[in-house]
């Protein structure tokens, strides 16, 4: 089948011609599957991606540009879907590892309480050694619940200064607490809840 046949099939596809869709599927499904498989190394996932690509093609058929290369278009979608799957897979693995660590850590409540108390104490120590202005801004934000704008007005500084000081304080805390267990009890409950 020649490339200009793709253009004819796309024109028919845009008119809801399922036989044109089927012809494009037969022409490209195998090579798209092989492409996805070469990246994912998972036959089942490569098959899912291939089916998803053709589902998207059918759903968006009215918007396909027939003057552009259909082959490039379909491989571009496949690449995008494969990368999307890889990102999701990486994120899911990370979540599972994190929750596995939290579950095993919290199974021993005594150790958990001791570790949590240690992290609270370390957090307070780190806050106390922050530069004076940074410490004041951070405490107003996290301990007293003031908004960045309220802190800026109260201290006569810009909101940007407040944001920068809070970011610097969080960076310091993250570095210090990251050395403790379970990512500093999930960075001390995402910095004080």
TrEMBL record:
Residue stretches spanning the membrane: none
Biological processes per GO annotation: DNA-templated transcription initiation
Any matching Pfam family: Sigma70_r4_2
InterPro entries: RNA_pol_sigma-70-like, RNA_pol_sigma-70_dom, RNA_pol_sigma70_bacteroid, RNA_pol_sigma70_r2, RNA_pol_sigma70_r4_t2, RNA_pol_sigma_r2, RNA_pol_sigma_r3/r4-like, Tscrpt_reg_LuxR_C
Molecular-function GO term, any one: sigma factor activity
Xref: CDD domains: Sigma70_r4 (cd06171)
Domain of life where this protein originates: Bacteria
Entry keywords, A to Z: Sigma factor, Transcription, Transcription regulation
Residue ranges constituting the HTH luxR-type domain according to the UniProt record: 127-189
NCBIfam families found in the cross-reference section: Sig70_bacteroi1 (TIGR02985), sigma70-ECF (TIGR02937)
Recorded family membership: Belongs to the sigma-70 factor family. ECF subfamily.
Name this protein carries in UniProt: RNA polymerase sigma-70 factor
Annotated source species: Gaoshiqia sediminis
């Amino acid at each position: 089948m020649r490339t200009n046949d793709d253009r004819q099939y796309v024109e028919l596809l845009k008119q809801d011609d399922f036989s044109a869709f089927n012809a494009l599927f037969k022409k490209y499904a195998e090579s798209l599957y092989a492409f996805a498989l070469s990246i994912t190394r998972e036959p089942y996932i490569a098959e899912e991606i291939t089916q998803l690509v053709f589902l998207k093609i059918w759903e968006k058929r009215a918007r396909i540009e027939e003057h552009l290369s259909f082959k490039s278009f379909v491989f571009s979608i496949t690449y995008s879907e494969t990368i999307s799957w890889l990102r999701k897979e990486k994120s899911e693995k990370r979540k599972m590892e994190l929750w596995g660590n939290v579950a095993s850590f919290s199974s021993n409540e005594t150790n958990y309480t001791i570790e949590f108390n240690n992290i609270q104490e370390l957090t307070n120590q780190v806050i106390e050694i922050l530069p004076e202005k940074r410490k004041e801004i951070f405490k107003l934000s996290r301990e007293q619940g003031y908004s960045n704008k309220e802190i800026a007005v109260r201290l006569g500084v810009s909101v940007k200064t407040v944001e920068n000081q809070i970011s610097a304080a969080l960076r310091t805390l993250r570095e210090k607490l990251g050395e403790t267990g379970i990512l500093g009890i999930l960075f001390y409950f995402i910095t004080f809840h």
